[in-house]
Design a protein that fits this description.
Formate dehydrogenase/DMSO reductase fold; Copper resistance D domain protein; CopC/D; 0% strand
């Protein structure tokens, strides 16, 4: 039982870490204008990317040990040998995915350490590496449970779902970092916040559409075209809770897009933007908190059997 909770905790930590890594990188690549990429917030994003990459390596090392113990049925961690890890890393999808993730995270960390003081920051490279690292998580969940053509559809849908979630969670993290900087009240920071919050609308629509479409596909592949047991099984109850949190996030995102962002733009023109920034900040922090709860639920769902199995 203790190992089960440790596995859930590690899955949750990895979800948070890798979504931040990918999402902040993607945000920097598409939302920041070239003249913003030499700003203090851009360097803060690179710092966050470096920390996420280093944390991801540590968490991945820890998780492979826990996974090896679970897969071999060993009673104690001391029973695990180098031969066990060698077989696991070379012969299983989980192990191969793990090695790909470690390579992507190590590349992210090295690049982040080398470019911290450069004027032009390679957010696009970080985003690609972050996407690779996040995608590897799919091979440790329900997405890897099918074979053949069904398996390819399932893993593809799972990866798309992960990347869409990462883009949303990471962008929220980037917004919160921007709104909470000590210089957040400065005209430059407010201008970046206003520009990026308006620019996020187009990507936000694509993210929501992808999450909904891939969520339906994953449900059909995991549970099937039925709602039997949805309200009586642990898996179903957690899934319903996840959907409720997702609905709340959609409501907050809509308020940010159609109410708070326009208010910030109006406040900027009047020169009195402090109140609008504070209101938007609170909404973003609330939305990010809901995202963290959803990731915790997803981590828990990943170790449960769906109803009927």
């Amino acid at each position: 039982m203790a190992d089960d909770w440790l596995n859930i905790a590690l899955r949750f930590a990895l979800y948070v870490d890798l979504t931040i890594l990918f999402g902040v990188s993607l945000f920097g690549a598409y939302a920041l204008r070239p003249d913003h990429r030499s700003s203090a917030i851009a360097r803060r994003y690179v710092c966050a990317i470096g920390v996420a990459a280093a944390s991801g390596i540590v968490l991945s090392l820890w998780s492979i040990v826990v996974t090896a113990k679970a897969m071999t049925g060993a009673a104690k961690y001391a029973e695990l040998t180098s031969h066990v890890f060698g077989m696991m890393l070379s012969s299983t999808a989980v192990g191969i995915g793990w090695m790909v993730r470690i390579a992507a995270l190590a590349a992210c960390l090295i690049i982040a350490m080398c470019v911290r003081r450069r004027q032009t920051l390679p957010f696009s490279i970080f985003a690609v590496l972050g996407a690779v690292a996040l995608a590897t998580v799919a091979w440790a969940g329900h997405g890897a449970m099918d074979d053949g053509s069904r398996g390819y559809v399932h893993i593809t849908a799972d990866i798309a779902h992960l990347l869409a979630a990462g883009a949303w969670v990471g962008s929220l993290t980037a917004f919160v970092l921007l709104a909470r900087t000590p210089q957040a009240a400065s005209l430059e920071s407010v201008e970046i916040l206003n520009h990026t919050s308006n620019g996020f609308a187009r990507l936000g629509t694509l993210i929501v559409a992808t999450l909904l479409a891939t969520g339906v596909v994953n449900y059909l592949l995991i549970v099937g075209p039925t709602i039997d047991g949805l309200a009586t099984s642990a898996y179903g109850v957690l899934l319903l809770a996840k959907l409720a949190m997702f609905g709340l996030m959609l409501g907050l995102a809509s308020a940010n897009r159609y109410l708070l962002s326009p208010q910030l733009e109006i406040a900027m023109r009047s020169g009195d933007h402090a109140g609008a920034v504070m209101t938007l900040r609170r909404s973003l922090i609330t939305e990010a908190s809901l995202a963290v709860i959803i990731l915790a639920l997803v981590a828990w769902l990943g170790v449960l059997s769906p109803p009927g199995t």
